[in-house]
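Possible regression after last week's pipeline update?

I re-ran a chain I had predicted before the update to compare outputs. Posting the input and the new output here so someone can diff against the archived version. Not blocking, just want to make sure nothing changed silently.
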Amino acid sequence: METVSLTVFPRKPGKRYVNEARRKGLIPVNIYGKAIEKNITGSIERSKVVKALLSPKGRNVLLTLETEGRKILALPREIDIDPIKNSLRHLDLLVIDGEEPITVNVPVIKEGRSQGEILGGRTLVVLREVPVRCLPAKIPEKIVVDVTPLDIGGRIMLKDLPYPEGVIPAIRENVPVIVVNKGRGQTAEETTAEGAAAPAEGEAKPAEGAAKAGEGAAKKGDKPEKGSDKKK
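New output (post-update):
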């Protein structure tokens, strides 16, 4: 399993120590999860953690944290970006078990030009990320979808995505992910609504699935304890 190794430097809670860490070129972090007895407050070298987040895995990069004389496996969860400076301010890291499945959001990338697009239609990615469940070592960088066979009115549903081996969708609703509409004058929502007019038996309405798709991964795992100093 490929991971990025980072050293966690001890840090006391509080605004004073957060600012002190930033002046030293460190990023304040809170580390939590069922695999550790209590939350860990610390700091990580800014340059190294930024490089990790800019890797192909992005927010799903696996981290090996060296802290308190041991090594633990973690995944970025909440990333605090300064809206003015557009710079990383704080990280929440979830400790995970490499042998247990986890839910994450993975980007969907369309490839090729659909037949419908050649005829004047538009190929739209309705869900740019989809929640998947798999072992940490199996987390894909992205899911690439070939749209060239799709005609106008064609669509690729959640269950039809080309999932890598060991990766499954994290929600049951079979919602549209990519659609080809008529072009100008028709939105992705209208195209989606057409497909939902007569759902198959046992299939949830796409609107419900789409609303839940972004929530599935966000609600997984443990929550950090109250009193986080990330916004101080």
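Follow-up from reviewer: compared with the archived run. Residues 206-218 form the longest helix (13 residues). Marking as no regression found.
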